[in-house]
Amino acid sequence: MNGVEYLAGGPEVSNTPLPAYSEEALIFLSDLSAKLLHDPRTRAYPDVTSFGFWCRKANLQKLKEECADRESRLGRGLAFHVAPSNVPVNFAFSFAFSLLAGNGNIVRVPSKNFPQVQLICKSIKQILPDHSEIERRAAFVRYPVDQAITTGFCAKADARLIWGGDDTVQAVRSCPVKPKCIDLVFADRYSICVIDGESVLQADERSLKKLAENFYNDTYLMDQNACSSPQLVLWLNGGSEARERFWGAVAEYAGNLYELQGMTAVDKYTQLCEDAVERPEVEKVLRQNGNLLYRAELSGLPENAGDDLRGRGGYFYEADLSELSDICPVVNEKYQTLTYFGLGPERLRKMVIDDHLRGIDRIVPVGRAMDIGVIWDGYDIIGTLSRIVQAG
User: Fold this and answer.
1) Residue 18 included in any domain
2) For position 86, what pLDDT does the model report?
3) Mean pLDDT computed over every residue of the chain
4) What does the pLDDT look like over 174-229, one tens digit per residue?
5) Residue 391, pLDDT score
6) Does 279 fall in a domain?
7) Sign of the C-alpha dihedral computed for residues 246, 252, 258 and 260 taken in this order
8) Residues 212 and 155 grouped into a single domain
9) Of the candidates 157, 188, 219, which is a domain's last residue?
10) Is 155 among the domain residues?
11) Residues 235, 183 within the same domain
12) pLDDT reported for residue 3
């Protein structure tokens, strides 16, 4: 197609399915892991390191063993992926999931020239010739927004993985597909963090520093752009001493690592002005370490939090909970991940299930918000992207 740049692979991509967790896929991803983790450039990109670590042989084998019906599963054919524009490495995970499910893949990478995308695609291009079955089933493409090109790729697809904002989802979904084509849609989501203040006060200095590091990894590493990055911090037993101890540790840790870009600083100031003028629930905004950390304190939980209360680059909203169930009235289908510190995960899951919440698909400790896996947004991705061959 005119206007399409192939970063790895070529225009002819096979739709002949492989078994789920095929040896070809496992060996290829394991080799990709080794290549990335031995490349000194990878050390500059924690997200690439995480992807390489996820693809290592031991982890893939564990996932295979956990898929009890894998011997009855076959890929659906050809998957077309539209990766989000603001999370550089997401396209690689999307590809890996679909490959493990047994599919050929055409992956549209972000149009922005992220160095992580170049690094991963170059590594894939270098090892593809050693994996002929995967080489036939893989193409990584980049092109400007062009509905005609997207329509052409969609017409070939047996499955589509659509990551991005609501407008992107609607645009891709409007493209005609085969009658049996399935869509996995990973649309705009919202994530929160719940912290028990008493646990913060009881933490020793080493534990507090680790908590700050984990929170930093969940938020600052991606400028809070990832759907699983918490935007809103909710406190149980959250007195001023606990808050100051926590945020002080976060500011100190971020101050040693985070580089605030000029445009992000402008965005944060704009958000501050909007909060002051348009959001009466924002009682005050506290600033720490210059522009490094903004904390917008709320008088309560507004119903539209998932749409309006979104920061970037260290702009967080926070509020008190009198009890955990205070969350329930505001949670809708936009809510994805709940990270926690000082609470038990089963207590949180019981709340989601017993209160019949429409949102919150993931409950993980602070520090694991970015740990993407084969269960994501409530989908069993491998199960959905493969089909069961029934015999009886």
Assistant:
1) yes
2) 84
3) 94
4) 999 999 999 999 988 999 999 999 999 999 999 999 999 999 999 998 888 889 99
5) 87
6) yes
7) positive
8) no
9) 188
10) yes
11) no
12) 87
Q: Give CA–CA dist 282/274, Å, rounded.
A: 10
Count of domains forming the chain: 2
pLDDT band at 9 (very low <50, low <70, confident <90, very high): very high
Report d(CA 245, CA 251) in Å as an integer: 10
**Rounded Cα distance, 315 and 13, in Å:** 43
The parent domain of residue 277 ranges over 190-365
Kindly state whether residue 375 falls inside one of the protein's structural domains. no
Q: Are 317 and 232 in contact (CB under 8 A)?
A: yes
Find, among 121, 135, 155, the residue nearest to 13 by Cα. 135
* Cα distances (Å, whole numbers) of residue 279 to 126, 267, 297: 52, 17, 11
Instruction: List CB contacts of 337: < 8 A, sequence separation 6 or more.
Output: 189, 191, 192, 227, 228, 230, 360, 361, 362, 363, 364, 369
The H or E element containing residue 340 is strand 335-341
Which own/partner pairs from 321-324 qualify as long-range (CB within 8 Å, at least 24 positions apart)? 321/194, 321/234, 321/235, 321/236, 321/238, 323/236, 324/194, 324/236, 324/348, 324/351
d(CA 105, CA 139): 6
Contact indicator for 223, 264 with CB cutoff of 8 Å: yes
One-letter amino acid of 109: V
- Does 211 lie in the same domain as 175? no
C-alpha 68 chain-centroid distance: 26
179/232 same-domain check: no
Q: Kindly tell me if the per-residue pLDDT of 303 is higher than 90.
A: no
Do 171 and 303 fall within a single domain?
no
pTM of the model: 0.90
Q: Indicate if 160 and 201 belong to the same structural domain.
A: no
Contact 358, 334 (CB under 8 A): no
